[in-house]
Amino acid sequence: MNIAILGATGKFGIALTSKLLAFTDHKLTLISRNAANKFEDNYRIRALNVNATDLRALKKALKDQDLVYCAIAGDYLPVIADNIISCEPKRFIFMTTVGVYNELENADHLNVDNEPLQIPNQYAVNLIEESDVDYTIFRLGLLENGDEDDYVITKKGEGVKTHNTTAESVMKIARQIIDDPELYSRESISITKK
Known about the structure:
The structure is a single chain. By secondary structure, the protein is of the alpha/beta class. It has a single domain (about 1-190), classed as Rossmann fold, CATH 3.40.50.720. It contains 6 helices and 10 strands, in the order βαβαβαβαβαββββαβ. The chain has helices at about 10-25, 35-40, 55-60, 75-85, 120-130, 165-180; strands at about 1-5, 25-30, 45-50, 65-70, 90-95, 135-140, 140-145, 150-155, 165, 185-190. The strands form 2 sheets. It has an 8-stranded mixed sheet with strand order 3-2-1-4-5-6-10-8, with helices on both faces. Strand 5, helix 5 and strand 6 (about 135-140) form a beta-alpha-beta unit. The chain is globular, with a radius of gyration of 16 Å. The termini are far apart. The model has no long low-confidence stretch (mean pLDDT about 95).
């Protein structure tokens, strides 16, 4: 399988790359503005310096990918989400934060109605949900190291009680989707600590 990771040089992107290299035989296309400076190409890695806001460059980078994982954050997220949708990925995992639906019960100040930094996340999620792509949206809390089995999944429309997430649990769910692409197809799930 060919997997593209956008935001590959971020903390989570590096951890996900290491996990996939160690526990799978998939080929990875690592994409960020400076991925080729961080990673060396080999028989399993292709590192590309691409700005995900550049649609033409992104289309070229995502050609022949079976799954696209977006681990990018920031104000340009709606543009990036729209560009990925335009590339028509076969399977798409999009990482964002809890609170985009005002679903946080014990941290209301982090919900989109109270936190302006959530607005780009909400716009990006809306674009993805209105598209025809085969997506899974990961809504995550503050990422920290921890147990890969320390998580609870809540679906869109359900309240979320915590706002912390172990990076290991996110990587576990991502690997499950890679192994079973039908899992959480066209769903938005939060992955937070128990």
